[in-house]
Amino acid sequence: MIHLTAIDIAVFALFVIAVVGVGMIKGRSKGGSEDYFLAGRGLSWWLIGFSLIAANISTEQFVGMSGQAADYLGLAIASYEWMAAITLVVVAFFFLPKFLRTGIYTVPEFLEHRYTWHARTVMAGLTMITYVIVTITAVIYSGALTIHTLFPNISLIGGAVLIALIAAVYVVTGGLKACAWADLLQGSALILGGAIITWFAFHTLGSTPLDQLAYTATEGLEGLTDASGGVEKFFALNSDKLHMVLPANDLILPCTALMVGLWIPNFYYWGLNQYITQRTLGSHSLAEGQKGIVFAAALKLIVPFVIVFPGIIAFNIYSDDLAEIASKDVKIQGNWAMYEDAKVNLGAGEDILIFSVDKAFQVNESARYAEIAAYNANAEALAAEKGIATKSIALAGYKYDSAFGLLIGKLIPGGKGVQGFILAAILGAVVSSLASMLNAASTIFTMDIYKRFIAKDAAEKKLVLIGRFCVGIFVAIGCLLTPVLADPKFGGVFTFIQEFQGFISPGILAIFVFAFAVKKAPRICGVVGLIASPVLYGSLMALLPGVAFLDRMAITFGAVLLILLVLTLVKPLKEPFELPDRATIAMDSSASAKIGGIIVVVLTLVLYGIFW
């Protein structure tokens, strides 16, 4: 909980007014569907770049990524950002030209050109369900939870309604153009706000005595003193966290995922996800779109330094607070209660439980960890004797997802407007992502469902009206479902997002890759790939629950490609398929974007080389 002064409140209010005002003024629609849904295909590269970043970054990154960085994952979690930089470069030069050449409004629409209208409809339906029930609801909930955590007097529903209304106001007014201009402010604030937090984090780390800092490194601490600077302390105290590779059996980010698994959600998200791709579909030209995407790729290289690094430092300076918060967390304490019961009643129940703890707990609570290790040895021996499997339960000594909240509440000085600006940047992160999803979901419903099946000859103004009406319906659904995600039995918002994306993203990516690469692929491949993906992924969840979700996605992706290959070998098209040329904008590729893309790829590889 934090207490804002009058200047903090004023800065916060002015920022919100500026975002909504700029969005409404710049986004004034001329009435046509292309103007509303695709900003009249007139977006410049700098608007596209900032808008891609603002649409992408939400509380999932600020809360989830910084929390996982504070945990044992450390810098490894930055692969989501740095691999995205390479992904974006590929999207700019291999995906975007094909999409712009066909003149599509939505990603599902492309499937009708390459496969069939059935494939377009199935993808539109799957995407709509995912956006409305999963991503929109999750973003509203995570933003409302952040507001409720920092300001307990504001209820979860109250926070949800506030976020939803701010986003809906300028989306309804100006569609994609309003989102892009609002994102210019919000994207800039995100980068600046993250940089401010990073500076204060390193400054505080440098001024804190060593005996008041927590760390998990066991080597490289020689010569470190209280007078050492923040950067020197950071690299010494966290040397075991500053690498990109985790064991192959890690359930969150195994090293195997760096080879295949992590590329699947990356290419799906940045190349085939409507609320991201819609910005590039609104490009003034192919060159502007490519420059905007490469600009966003360069910004992605910065993100770990302003989100992941502060998260790691949060554990160094606020471990006691993280432990105290964990002691009040119902789910965490429930697992500890299970451990205490299992010690007394080992072998008495149907399951034999094994308990795992994170490295920070092992190092800082060595005596208690030894006790847990001894229990596990006895439990495993008993399981082997009885010939039954064990069930693993995770124990935690720290509430890592509270890392970012502690950085705001305890690190950023109050009374100078800085806290107000940081909170405005966080709210902007939530609002920009939500606005993008609302605009994308309304576009898919209007163009892929309403116009395709309900009113094929609908007037342009009627299409815009339907799109605006959808925005209101979708935010209402998201707000109504917010309390559902608050239930601890539900499993958490981030697990919710990851698992649902895993059902559809491997299949969607597979059929698009196949469409690009295999010109004789039969048209039935579209529907078969989309249907096979959730079936295969769901089966893997049920049969192999111990496999990391990224590895499940890789297996599903490979299996779908194999199915499509067999279909092509059995019944290929008689003639190679050629995409129709319906482009209404200049399609010359950008030489400067190519140079920039090469630089981004090289810098990404250098960063991996430094921190491998």
CATH fold-level assignment of the largest domain: Sodium/glucose cotransporter
Strand content: under 5%
What's the helix count?
Answer: 23
Structural class: mainly alpha
Number of domains: 2
Low-confidence stretches: none
Helical percent range?
A: over 70%
**Rg over CA atoms:** 25 Å
In spatial order, strands of the major sheet run 1-2
Topology:
Elements: H1 6-26, H2 33-38, H3 45-56, H4 59-70, H5 79-102, H6 107-114, H7 117-150, H8 156-207, H9 230-237, H10 255-261, H11 263-272, H12 274-281, H13 286-326, H14 330-344, E1 352-357, H15 359-364, H16 366-386, E2 390-395, H17 403-411, H18 418-454, H19 460-485, H20 493-517, H21 525-543, H22 549-570, H23 591-611
Parallel strand pairs: 1-2
Describe the structure.
With 612 residues, the protein is mainly alpha-helical. It folds into 2 domains: 6-326 and 402-495 and 585-611, Sodium/glucose cotransporter (Up-down Bundle); 330-398, no CATH class. It contains 23 helices and 2 strands. The chain has helices at residues 6-26, 33-38, 45-56, 59-70, 79-102, 107-114, 117-150, 156-207, 230-237, 255-261, 263-272, 274-281, 286-326, 330-344, 359-364, 366-386, 403-411, 418-454, 460-485, 493-517, 525-543, 549-570, 591-611, and strands at 352-357, 390-395. It has a two-stranded parallel sheet with strand order 1-2. The longest helix has 52 residues, at 156-207. It is globular. The model has no long low-confidence stretch (mean pLDDT 86).
